[in-house]
Every structure is written in structure tokens, then in C-alpha cells.
Amino acid sequence: MKRFSFMADTITRRLIITVALAATVTLVLLELFFTFGGKWAKPDIQEAGIVSQVGSVIRIVSSAPSADREHLAQAANTDEVHFAWYAAGSPQAQALENGHYRSSDLSEGWRFLQPYLRHPPNRMVVFQEDNPVSREAGLPYDRSRFDDAYFAGIRLDDGSWILCIALQRFWGLYAFERLCLQLLMLTFWIVAVSLIASRQLSRPIEHLANGVRSLGLQPRSARLDEKGPREIRLVAETINGMQAQIQQFIEYRTTMLAAISHDLRTPLARIRLRGEFIDCPEQQKHLFRDVDEMQTMIDGALSFFRNDASREEGIMFDLPALLQTIANDYCDQGFLVKYHGPAKASYIGQFYAMKRVFSNLIENAIKYATPPILTLDTQPDGSYMIYIRDNGPGIPEASLSEVFEPYFRLDKSRNRQTGGVGLGLTSAQTIVRSNGGDITMTNRPEGGLEVLIYLPKIR
């Protein structure tokens, strides 16, 4: 078992670094928030001690004789909160008595002060700078300096009033508002860190997936880049080794089939030569037909396996130009093959192999149905859909899933006049899939066969 080394590029190291950076950035952001967050970063009104201070002053002033209340209120002034006492019938007392206040402010003010008062006051008012009562003359604050003051007034038993003025808002949000803000920031940061972390971990895997996909386009020359975290490099090394073994196996198989084909030609030639001495013309005809069919099967199989192991490299070419060229070639032979689609569209793949695919499918349509119509559709993601539609009898539904199997033919007689040995569609499917695409066949509702070739966008 290999020992863990933090200096090596591994998924574990990337995860540790990502989490550590996330924690560091979180601490930095919290510090910046508390430094520059203004009122959002301050404790709420209860934690700031303002409510307890106001409650204490109200209890002391209300318990003192009337002659001492004004002096006690003035003595309780601080740089943050000012207090004033007004006798019953004074202009300030009347203004407080007759003012209009929001019920929400009153209920909220009583909720805060209730724990600090022994009994409910005769009347309580709470208002802000926008209330006309705040403009009453004689209030103990400078309106030009403190434009966001908060006011709370209590009417005492003798009809006098004590007014408390928080000169400016120096407390933060209320508990519920603070909780909502914290949850919002936490959610945002979790999403941001998750995206960064997942990107760090998923990017090497995406690169590996793209590399594996490219093996289908250039199976002989393609090789995965062995870079990234150690775990991804090990996977790439394993795939490269497996790819080399597969290519070696394909080469051995092709060489073996070529040798078998060459060795079979000699006995087939001897059989044909000896057939010349058969006196019965009918038996001689059957023998020569079997020899020719065996030779065709051998040549077709060898051609298929050689195409499967093709050394053709993927190049960029004009796909519509290829389709139009094939269509024009058949038109020159007297078969009306039409093309519908864009005039230009670039594609990267095996040019000659794809040309064999389209030619084989068009030739099948001409031979067993009618000259087809070629349609090229460009998809929004950059992929291509090529449709080959004819107006023939179609294919039995039970055989649609079997037409791409090797040596499968709808014509069971294997008559050489009606087709090959059943490897054309298998070869076409192998070529298309080696380019990262797929090929399917369906019967059209209005009659005829539709062959769909999907070619993905090459990244």
C-alpha cells in the first residue's frame, strides 16, 4: 500500500486544499463583515443593553418625587441615549398625548420593555424621526445631528411623561432578521464553495472522459494524457495499457484472418479445377456457385475486419459536401438521390470510412427499395442527424433489431445477385460508433425505411 504524500497531486490533497481555502476565506469574510458591516454587524437592541438601560431609568424616575424627576432624567443622559421628563399639561406632554403612532411600533416597543417594567404604564408611545411629534420644541436632542433618532415615551401615574431618545441607531438587526441574513450568507457560501470544490474534483474526470471518447475517433494513435491527480493518472495508465493490448489483439486477429484467407484460396482453386472434370453440367454449376460464394464470404469477412482495424486518422471535412458528392455520383448513374440540408458544416472524423457508410446505405436503398432522400440536420449542441429515407417496403419489425448483426440477411438464400454476405450494415455500425455516433433503422408510418445516423460534436 502506497503511503500518502501531501506533496503528490491527489484527489485527497485537492480536497484538503479546497476545504482549507474555503475555511480561510470564510474567516476573512466574517472579519470584514464585522468590520465594515455597519448596523448589520452590530448586536440587536436587546444585546446592546439599550432596553435594559431605558427600563432602569424609567423605574427610577417613576419612583422618585415629582420635584426630582427632571433632574434624575437629565442625570441619566449618555452619549447614546437622552432622557427628559415633562410635567402634565406641558406642551411636550400634550404633544406626546395627542400624537398619532403606528400600532406595530407600539407593540414592538412594549415587547422589548415589558421584562424591565414592574407593571404596564398608563400609556406608552413609540415613534421615529418621521413622526411630527419629533419636531416638537424642547426635545433634548439636536435634529440636525441625529436624523435617525428613536423615541419611546411613558406616561406616569400623575399624567407626566418621561421621554427616552436613542440619538442614533447603534444596534443591529433584530434576532429574526439576523438569522435570515446569516442563513442567506451561509447558503450562498456553501453553494460557492461546493461549486469550487466540485470543479476541482470533476475537471480531471471530465478531461479523462473526453480522452476516452477520443479513443473511438483515432483508435490506433490516440493515447490518454497521464496527468492530473494520482488516481486519475493511474486510471489513464490502465486504459492506455488496455488500449495497447486491444490494438495488439486486433492486429493479431487481422493477420490471422489474412493468413486464413490466403490459405483458403489455394484449396478453393483446386476444387474449382477439379470441378472442370465433372461430367454432369448441373452438378458442376452448383459446385462452382458454392466455390464462388465461399470466396465472396472470405473476401467480405476479411474486408470487414480490415476496416474494423482501419488506420485512417480523423480529419476535418465538409459533411454536406461529402453527402452531395455521393448523391451526385448516383445521379450520374441514373438514380435520383436528393440532398436536403445546409451547404456547409464542418465535422471531424474518418472521411473515407464515413463515405463508405453513406454509400453502402444509399446503395442498399436503391437495390431493395427506391433512391433515397438524404437530409442533414444540425442540432443546437453542434451534433448532426443524417436521415436516409426511401419509399420501399421497409423491413419487418421483428428484424429491425437484427439487421446490424454479422452475416444477417433478410434474403436467406444468400444469392450473390441480391447482395453480399451480410456484413455491410455491421461494418457501417462499427464505423459510425468508432466516430462516437450511432445508427438506427425504423419503418416510416407513410411507408419506406428511415436510417438515422447520429454524429456527435467533436470537442
TrEMBL record:
Record localization: Cell inner membrane
SMART domains, per database record: HAMP, HATPase_c, HisKA
Catalytic activity: ATP + protein L-histidine = ADP + protein N-phospho-L-histidine
Leader sequence residues: none
Membrane topology: Multi-pass membrane protein
EC number: 2.7.13.3
Top-rank EC class of the record's enzyme: transferase
A Pfam match: HAMP
PROSITE patterns linked: HAMP, HIS_KIN
UniProt keyword annotations, A-Z: ATP-binding, Cell inner membrane, Cell membrane, Kinase, Membrane, Nucleotide-binding, Phosphoprotein, Transferase, Transmembrane, Transmembrane helix, Two-component regulatory system
Domain of life, source organism: Bacteria
Gene3D superfamilies tied to this protein: 1.10.287.130, Histidine kinase-like ATPase, C-terminal domain
Histidine kinase domain location: 259-459
Listed transmembrane segments: 15-36, 179-197
CDD domains found in the cross-reference section: HAMP, HisKA
Keyword Signal appears in the UniProt entry: no
GO molecular function: kinase activity
HAMP domain ranges (all copies): 199-251
Protein known as: histidine kinase
Species for this entry: Gluconobacter thailandicus NBRC 3257
Upper classification of the organism: Bacteria, Pseudomonadati, Pseudomonadota, Alphaproteobacteria, Acetobacterales
